Fold this sequence. Notes:
single chain; alpha/beta; 13 helices; 38% helix; binds pyridoxal-5'-phosphate
Amino acid sequence: MSDERFIPYGTQSIDDSDLRAIEAVLRSDWLTQGPAIERFEQSLCALTNAGDAVATSNATAALHIACLALDVGPGDKVWTSANSFVASANCALYCGAQVDFVDIDPISFNMSVEALDAKLLDAASAGALPKVVIPVHFAGQSCDMKAIGALSKRFGFRVIEDASHAVGGRYLGSMVGACQYSDITVFSFHPVKIVTTAEGGAALTNDSELAGRLRLLRSHGITRDPDLMDSPSQGAWYYQQTTLGYNYRMTDMQAALGASQLTRIEAFLDRRHAIADTYDQLLDGLPIRRPVRLANGRSALHLYVIQVDDESRRKVVFDSLRADGIGVNVHYIPIHLQPYYRALGFREGQFPFAEAYYRRAISLPMHPKLSSDDVQRVVRSLETSLS
Ligand SMILES: *Cc1c(COP(=O)(O)O)cnc(C)c1O
């Protein structure tokens, strides 16, 4: 280990205005799911133009209730990208559904529309179409949602966008989260993501009925709204449990932090793009492939993933960077290769592009607190490790 400061691959950026926002909640009457939640949800709607936003304890919880709100249950099939965090698939298993994966596009590393199309045709003839498909906006870059939306109409499945990486991103002139081609979009506010609430997530939708279900599922399946009860209210204390829900609420402290962070989202994204520009420039000519920023939108640039040309050297390069205090990481080990998923019957070779991508991938540090000196240090260390 060098004696220089450790540079993480991702980390939060908290300022004094964030601290003041949290303190104001702590000094107020509400600590959990009060007025700050409503303000945060309104901020998310204002950012994305979605009709409704439902803040949750984390994105995994939001993915779970998104599946439940779309009636995913035993006997249903849910497909997601092989190149994602396990939560993108686990949410369907929580509902008792069956999970399958779609391979990735080798340029964007997002779910391949061609692979999805081919798999849907096969599934249609086998009578085994998915109820829900969960595209994941890998590294902050939107999937080809227009094409996926067209396939959803043709084959009759619902769409949940896992936009955990893509808060603040754009696609074809609208914000990620606008749900133009999907039923629900899920955001994560984990500290390494674009904006943070410590732990936190949200489900966004334009369908007010879905939003109502998401709200019920977030809080025990309990309602205090007389319109949603099966008999007249017995008094001001009265509530009814109308479905089996969970405690997936976010606290008001977290929501206040999130709303405060959202006021700086453009600056965060600008900084991420400036860092990516510098990396692109300085890494030119090295035996690696740099990530591609597509012209159909604006990536939120959660990750900056390079591909080492010589896959047999990936581990050496990775270890060398780590030994230099550079907090590189790998996103993602293909989900189907996890022991839990192998035990469900998945095996190596099923999603070859996700597997080949994984063998070469290294995520370099990418977050708004990286200084120019940090970026230079990462690049020098990478150059040394590759020489
Ligand atoms: C981080 C992440 C999640 C889970 O988010 P949490 O808020 O930690 O539950 C889900 N999907 C993807 C793609 C992620 O990166």
